[in-house]
Q: What sequence folds into this?
């Protein structure tokens, strides 16, 4: 009788342990895909708020700089966006253009990562400017998923992945180092970037 109770208790404990392990394990989506964000991404565009995750309306350039602006800002042109970036940098009292030469290659004295993505080759079409380090930016959040056809990297290297959250294949990292620019993407990568990370 005692032995039977012990077996029953051991069976219950084993079941509880297995359930807790299964419930605590991270769930992985089919084919290792990470789901893309589906929520709104509010952005300032002129005198109104738009949902840039859905539609940029007539904006041609958008700035995402979470540490400095409360929400993304969109503009009619890249030149207009560049003026806003310069204004924000001046306001922050930063000089991000200072650089030293290390073996003939420019290396920033103070790494402040940014990345410009373009939906056209040779830096044409709509542009998305991302600034911030140490996190993956899922491009679907900004309606730029699988649209990148050229890019410019600032003073910090970057990673590009073909799925959200840095999952899937990575763009050749030798071609996404500090100050790398590409008027066209590496073979097989045109319109295939879903997330980016700035080191």
A:
């Amino acid at each position: 009788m005692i032995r039977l109770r012990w077996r029953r208790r051991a069976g219950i404990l084993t079941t509880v342990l297995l359930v807790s392990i299964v419930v605590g394990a991270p769930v992985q989506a089919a084919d290792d895909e990470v789901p893309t964000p589906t929520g709104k991404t509010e952005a300032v565009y002129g005198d109104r708020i738009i949902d840039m995750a859905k539609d940029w309306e007539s904006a041609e350039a958008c700035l995402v700089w979470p540490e400095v602006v409360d929400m993304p800002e969109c503009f009619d042109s890249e030149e207009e966006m560049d003026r806003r970036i310069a204004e924000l940098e001046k306001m922050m009292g930063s000089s991000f253009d200072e650089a030293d030469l290390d073996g003939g290659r420019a290396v920033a004295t103070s790494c402040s990562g940014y990345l410009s993505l373009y939906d056209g080759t040779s830096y044409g079409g709509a542009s998305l400017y991302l600034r911030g380090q140490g996190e993956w930016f899922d491009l679907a959040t900004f309606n730029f998923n699988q649209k990148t056809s050229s890019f410019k990297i600032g003073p910090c290297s970057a990673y590009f992945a073909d799925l959200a959250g840095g999952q899937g294949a990575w763009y050749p990292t030798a071609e996404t180092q500090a100050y790398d620019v590409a008027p066209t993407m590496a073979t097989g990568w045109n319109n295939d970037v879903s997330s980016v990370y700035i080191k």
Summary: Helices lie at 2-24, 78-92. Residues 39-198 form a domain with the Gamma-B Crystallin; domain 1 fold (CATH 2.60.20.10).
